[in-house]
Design a protein that fits this description.
single chain; about 160 residues; mainly alpha; 7 helices; about 65% helix; about 5% strand; globular
């Protein structure tokens, strides 16, 4: 069985793979489908994917010990940003995780959330939160696609693992 740091790297690879598949599906939507309001917090396919992208960006900055800057900007709400900037962000995630040891993964990280609250949690919990957060919202997007009559891509972790063999 892989160690903790390797499990985190696998989780990061999975979330990058699954997000890329949904962005590719979103690229096949008509503009009105991409921005159709489903009455959820992030409203649409585009809004929900941008929410996950922005969260991934903020969390990586926190894990690297730097300021995340603004959570989202108006410029983020374009499919081209998700097609170009999100894969680049996942490369940064992979580069960060490549040097991660099991001991570092178990260390407690201090960070400040966007409301100014201070928290301390083990790094591994935060990485799994990022992946789980993305999984939740990718599920929403898959539901949006089905509601509009599209078949969403398979994004289950078992499908990801099968794609590696």
């Amino acid at each position: 069985m892989p160690g903790l740091s390797e499990v985190l790297r696998i989780q990061i690879d999975y979330t990058a793979w699954a997000s890329a598949r949904l962005v590719a599906a979103a690229a096949g939507l008509a503009p009105e489908e991409l921005t159709r309001d489903f009455g959820t917090a992030d409203k649409s396919v585009l809004g929900t994917l941008v929410h996950v992208f922005g969260s991934d960006r903020v969390w990586l900055a926190r894990l690297q010990g730097r300021s995340g800057g603004p959570y989202l900007a108006e410029a983020d709400y374009h499919l081209a940003v998700l097609q170009n900037d999100w894969p680049a962000l996942y490369r940064e995630w992979r580069n960060w995780a490549a040097g991660l040891t099991d001991e570092e993964a178990a260390k407690v990280l201090s960070y400040t959330d966007m409301r100014g609250n201070h928290w301390k949690q083990p790094l591994w919990e935060l990485v799994l939160h990022v992946v789980n957060h993305g999984t939740h919202h990718r599920g929403q997007v898959s539901g949006f696609l089905r509601t509009m009559g599209h078949v969403p891509p398979a994004i289950d972790m078992t499908i990801y693992h099968r794609s590696l063999h």
